[in-house]
Write a structure and sequence with these properties.
With 474 residues, this protein is of the alpha+beta class. It has 14 helices and 23 strands. The chain binds zinc ion.
Length: 474
Amino acid sequence: MADLPDKSSAFIDWYLAVVEAAGLSDKRYPVKGMNVWTPYGFLARRQLDRVMSREIEATASRPVEFPTLIPANEFQKEGEHIKGFDAQVFWVTKGGSTELDMPLALRPTSETAIYPVFALWVRSHRDLPLNVYQIVNTFRYETKTTRPFLRVREIHFFEEHTCQVDEAAADARVRSNLEAFAKMAHSLALPFVPVRRPEWDKFPGAYYSVALDIPIGGVRTLQIGSIHHYQENFSKPYGISYETPEGNRKPVQQTTFGLSERLIGALLAVHGDAKGAVFPSEIAPYQIVIVPISGKGADGMDAFIGGLATRLQDRGLRCWVDRSEDRPGAKYYKWETAGVPLRLEIGPRESAAGTVTAVDRLGRKGSIGPTDLEAGIVRKLSEFDEELRKRALATFQQSFATATTLEELRNSKHVRVVPWCGTEACGHAIETAIDGSLLGVPESDLPIAVPAPGLCVACHSTGPTKWALAGQPL
Ligand code: ZN
């Protein structure tokens, strides 16, 4: 089996090779950018869906599912939004051989599917807040090069849509989404920075947009999600209004929160290494793989392995026993490439003693048992997650550096933290210098310790500046 390309010098080649070697997606389906979820990839996606659902439902959001097709007249009600998506929409124009009276859009995102119905659901202030989410596939006619999980034309998508009583409540919902995402990110061992996008880069139709960004090596960044405050930009054209306690009608204030299968790509990009994928245990399709090592005196080994696997599954752990014909070495290689957090090697000696040899995906080896065997395995998994988080955080912090001159931006080997006066002209000067984007101003503490920001990196104005982030989004 060939070595993977080098992650730091050939990131995209490495990434594509890892997706392939780990068996997460099959891109040979005959529609560009529409890939097949393999069994292993689907199991990872199911865990991701579980974590997203759990954390959003903990903030009083409820699941819904709206239809995939959106009538053209509804799709075109909000001007900015349609301008932003027009070029990316797949249209259904025929039913059989009959031209449809009203063309139907395959949803690129679901505002225009959901809001005509929100207008029916929201009548009075007692109906607010209305917080719902769905996990569905969306479709975008992507013209750039497609990459599994990172940029595809059929996207496995999480979207929360809410209606709030006023602007302050909508702001509070944005905060609540950020807190919910922080919990998801903890499960994913994924350090991130929430960044308020500049005016010229916000979501089509949004009042403001907060993107969730991660560094993925050098100047490169990856947007792994976004939260938007719409104010009344959609509720007015869609007629979503409520009766106040005083008997007046007011448009609702709206927010959305979007995540996608890109999070799986982010896990590969952040945690993966020269051996392949590395999954945190919450998302790993299998958390534990047992590799039997047969030899002399193997009587009873099968029963020991079967019993242990059952007890681990009874504890809710995802455990796979690799009984294939491959040699143990080939199995180690396969499951390391696939990113399984913990491998248990069990031979005649281990089974006789009631122990296992455990090797985690970070290469740390030890013996567990015979007493408290299952508890010891669970402990090993949580130690693995802690170490993965620690390593990811260290890499995250090393990914940022300040730049106080345009020259430093031009020679960037990091995502840059720059003092910015807030004007669009200076924003574009920063973008030209780094040959990328001004990501915006962080909504949380900066990822690295910095002094108060000095003069704007572009215009050197003596007016107030803020630290902003600049990088090259993938
Ligand atoms: Zn400036």
